[in-house]
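Slide 14.
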Amino acid sequence: MDKKEKKRFRIGLRTIKTVIAVFVCCLIDFFRGVVPMQSTIAAILCIKADKKDTIQTALTRVIGTLLGGATGVLALYFFLNVGIPYYSLLFYFILCILLIPIIYIPVKLGWPDATALTCIVYVVVAMGYTGELTPVQMAFERTVDTLLGIIVAVPLNALLPHRTKDDTERAVQQ
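Slide 15: predicted structure.
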């Protein structure tokens, strides 16, 4: 087997930054007393190969998170005020139909890349409601946790080194 055919397992900078970002989110949420689900997902998705992509992804995630949180709260108040039983077929049907305007909103606002995240946060907020908190409090908690992951990932990715073009060319040649 010649050198080009032999591939070595390598842990790259992006992997290291992702692990650190996830751990920092776990630490922060541990002390906040919450499960670090949204923050770690946001951190994983925000760590990109370069600073520019990270910032663009972070901005898109912030917009999607805020829109999804707001629409999730509106949907929760609708379901609660109309008296539609949670987790019934009618609940799921209406929840899905409401995705139509929720998909339209970020597209119309000029943020089509935020559409998927808007939908995800909307579904997480609407389906994750337990009644322990008000809809606004619940959406606020979910939104803050997602934004925490973004706030951890962006500066971490900016501060830690990035692979340069020369590094990439050397890796391809090896």
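Speaker note: Helices lie at 13-32, 37-46, 51-82, 89-97, 99-108, 115-127, 135-159, 165-173.
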